[in-house]
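Table S5 (text form). Sequence records supplied for joint modeling of the two-component complex.
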Amino acid sequence: MTQWMGYVRPDGTVGARNLVLMLSGTVYANDVCERVADHIYGAVAITHPLGRCQVRPDLRMTRRFLSNTGMNPNVGAVVVVDHFREEGCTAYDIADDIQSATHKPVAVVNIREAGGLISATEKGLRYAADFARMLSDHQREPVPLSELLFGVECGTSDTTSGLASNPSTGICSDLIIAEGGRTIMAECTEWMGCEEWLTGRAVNEAIADQIVAGVQDMERRALASGEDIRGSQPTGDNMVGGLTTIEEKSMGACKKSGSAPIVGYLEIAARPEEMTAGLYVMYGPGHGAESISSMAAAGCQVLVFNAGGGHTSSHPIMPTIKITGNATSYELMKDTVELDVSGVLRDEISLEQAGRMVFDEVVAVASGRLTKSEALKAHNSFAIHRVGVSI
Amino acid sequence: MGRVFVIDREDNVGTAVLEPLKKGETVEAYGRLTGVSVVAQADIAYGHKIALRDIRRGEQVLKYGLSIGTASQDIRAGEHVHVHNVESNRGRGDLAAR
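The corresponding structure-token record, covering 489 residues in total, follows.
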């Protein structure tokens, strides 16, 4: 059995990182979070433009993304910052959600109550410095892959994606699940056209029905805003590139989920309640940052992002491993891309060997190896899904 | 000689991912299907597909071991397989939108 080295949390979950999270509750607290994180060992900031003047469903969505991200086991302790009280999504609400679910150390800084920006920054620094020292006592321990929740994503897809990086990642996912682990695949816009392949993998009819309903709902929401996403799939560019039908495009994307049974359906950014090994599919858009943020909120400790064109995407608290099957993209983007599996297409390595390379990288990164983006402190991909308008 | 990558042994198409294919050249499959070769009936661009055997009108076009659409006409081994001879089973949105 493969083991990885992680930080066992008070709730029994296991972190691949041991971060102090400066979590902004509202757009107007972003700078305090960034200032504090800049000056504290092992701290990272999560900032966003939301948390104020949102319709109720959006405010609930914002709270779910923020609270659940704070619950991710990669986070050892959290300082939640806001500037005022937005009913239903205050720093106190978010802190309460995180603490009651995970029992991890959480502190709140309210800028107004602290006496302004300077005092709030000082207060944040003191909390975060104390947390950083407290967390430094924690040591990694060997744990089985059943403690791993693995995320898969794809973007900047090209001809190589569906043939090299996505299938390699799918093989990695199958290896993780065979050892008791769990994988999440989101982006239900990309299930469109291969619903039957996915529903055929669902362990029961309820999940199969949810898969079909999820695709239909995303399509309906896009149509309501005037976009026929089915009409644009595959796009003209896709066809020039050689993709013939939406089935072909979607299967290439969904190959990153491997072949394991689908054992659960999750709402966007929801945490799976079960530990059953297998694939979980999550409702959500194809928007890369929103999608990987929804999987980080679900509790994924590590994510593989397949990027035919290369990518810079990296989530602040969830190591984001980038893989390409395009040798040119790797040359251009190797500052932030970990693996080049183009050898599959040159007949130098088999897909199984490439899958094993991805698996080895995932286990190493879960156990502490920094991703290239982490080494560069390049964290650009936190985004919250939106439902309605700003008010 | 040209080469096309095949992702599943059940597939009846392969993809040109090394070099574009030239009309008249022998094209050999590699990846998860080996020992199959056809003669390219047309120039085929990078990223595009070639038929590895005759596919009759109405037959499923298989990639990933799964149907990616239905042949809308008879396709001979070595022919270019694309939107001119394959139709989605999900409805062709790009045509419907016109």
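Note: The mean pLDDT of chain A is 95.
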